[in-house]
Amino acid sequence: MRLFSFATAEKRTHYLWVLRAFDQARGNYTVLLHAGDVHTLLARLAPEDEDVPAAADIPALLEQLHLWGVLERSYDGTRAATLAEYRNRHYVYQFTQPGYRAFRAVEDVLSARGEDVSLSRLALADLLADLIELAEANAAGDGELVYRKLSRLDATLSDMAERAARFYLVLGDLVRTTEVTPEAFLAQKDALLTHMREFSSDLARYAPKLAAALERVHATGADRLPVLAAQHDERVLLPVEEREADWRARWLGVERWFVGVGAAPSEAERLRGATINAISAVLSLLRRLTEQRRGGVSRESQLRHLAGWFAQAPSEDAAHALFDAVFDLGRPRHFSVPHEDADVVPVTRSWWEAPPVEIARTLAETGRRPAAGAPGKVQRNDASVRRLREAQLEKQRRRAAAAKSLAAGGVRERELSEPEVDVLLGLLDAALSARVPVSGRVRGDGTTATQNGVKITLRPSGESTVVRTARGRLYLDGLAVEVQ
Question: Can you tell me whether residue 453 is helix, strand or coil?
């Protein structure tokens, strides 16, 4: 990220013009530049009204660019006219490889224009010819030609992908924007739609031919392609294994672009689908703009004017009055549903003053009145119902057994089990809730209506009753407990 410091520095305009001078010299096959050479190039390159650095400021700018790693510095003793100048050696500068890439990235962003985007329709014929020649070169074992054709295929597909990405990005901005005028769009609609239709039709026509050419390459032994390309790859600093792996990955990308992998669609099919969807989006936008032009006033312009009126309202009451007048909230009833008694609450009364009206949930959520439709299907889960019923009966049986055990053994001189404690607490709750000496009764089995239940009687007593349970000791102060 330090390489991009020149784009955000205080003197970013000066730094950019200095680097443009180096780029201009690079285009003329001149690599090394002195500060004086930079000044001379800027005098010819920059317009007269442009803010360019002075000759005295250029050495400091070059030195700072060198510190950021954008430029490489070296000595040049040939410029010395005297011995003192030779000892003070002049500096010359040139782009570093990362520095040049950083400059080109910034320059591409600054020079990018939406009108420059396009779909590379003419590249499809080149792809077909390169695939046919690649199959012949692979069959003949011509590694140098295989390397050149694979390089061309990789560069062409990369350019197609980049062009398509930029084109659909700009097209998406055009479709989503609310600032486009009918005149600006209608002036270019024919060229835009023609360009996309021609690309879509050419892609559909070339797709089977490209797939057949790819099959010819596979018939000659596609596994040899990365090996032959790596042998003639001029990146000598990379080991042969890494070069071979790189070309194998590139060839895999070429295959995926033409035929895809497995059930996934190929990139060519996706590109064609995106083009068809883009044509539909452009036609939809064209239809909206045409209707807007025919009507004279669009909903967008209405809302913008209304927002301006709200912003300029002198008071909050005036804004409320404007809101009521625009959205007509003073006269009609809620969702056009009148009050039950129209004499008490007339339909002309404001929403703010009238009592609420009950409406159907469908009307509130969707704006549509509920309509009588077919009854919903009853979802029955007999297995779940059976399991729940069995669990309920099992719980009742355990409670009946605990009630019998509690009635037979009482609460004194023994420890109650957990089910017996549940029965006892339920009886105590029923008896104590009356706040008088009372008897509470709970059936042991509510389903059979038998008389084998349990009865508890609480009476005031001068002593306390202590009941030992599985949960601990229960103290009933001033109460005598009798269980039957």
Answer: coil
